[in-house]
Design a protein that fits this description.
five-stranded mixed sheet; 202 residues; single chain; Beta Polymerase, domain 2
């Protein structure tokens, strides 16, 4: 029983330390944050490692306790950038996902949007017609528990100083969101109206 309690305390300590590292070093890689936390704490057994969801929980607490006003200001600006981009790509039924939606974004976080198109070329043509410089990428996302990741095309471009990533799904992709790497549940997706409501509530 004592050993179990010790492991639970260590697990919580690693989660808190990892969250602080992510906040202070503007790190978004949960695995890297865990490894840094373990190193700073002098090493730990693998079974004491917290989940990404536990670290995300501690990250929200850290922001609320230590840099609430600054964090909320950064988050508001990122959400405004996201909203502008969503309105620009409104014909592709955009949805905001990831840290900017969840409230854990750092100042340098990428705004991630899911777009839906019958053909990938539609997004390609739209960006070219609007003369937006972009780079192509591929994003691996898991759609179902226990299944391999599926590869989706993505476009990345800069909106001012913020990177925007457009992950393109087929039209039927609106029915089911990919699994979150943080919670292993289906990602939360927010529409233009929902993002507007988030901004107004801040």
């Amino acid at each position: 029983m004592a050993r179990h309690k010790d492991l639970q305390q260590l697990r919580h300590q690693i989660a808190v330390t990892a969250a602080r590292i992510m906040a202070e070093e503007r790190l978004e890689d949960f695995y890297a944050a865990k490894k840094k936390a373990v190193h700073r704490l002098g090493g730990a057994a693998d079974k004491a490692l917290p989940t990404n969801e536990e670290i995300e929980h501690e990250l929200k607490i850290h922001h609320s306790l230590f840099n609430k006003d600054r964090h909320n200001g950064h988050l508001l600006e990122l959400r405004k950038t996201a909203l502008d981009a969503m309105k620009f790509f409104e014909s592709f039924n955009p949805r905001l996902v990831g840290p900017v939606l969840e409230g854990t974004a750092q100042i340098n976080s990428t705004v991630i949007l899911h777009l839906f198109a019958e053909q990938l070329e539609e997004v390609d043509r739209f960006l070219i017609d609007k003369k937006i410089p972009f780079e192509l990428a591929k994003v691996g996302l898991r759609m179902r528990v226990g299944k391999d990741k599926e590869i989706f095309p993505a476009y990345r471009f800069m909106a001012g100083e913020t990177q925007v990533e457009l992950v393109v799904f087929p039209l039927k992709g609106t029915r089911q969101a990919p699994l979150s790497a943080v919670t292993s549940r289906h990602m939360e997706r927010a529409s233009i109206k929902q993002v507007e409501d988030l901004i107004n509530s801040q």
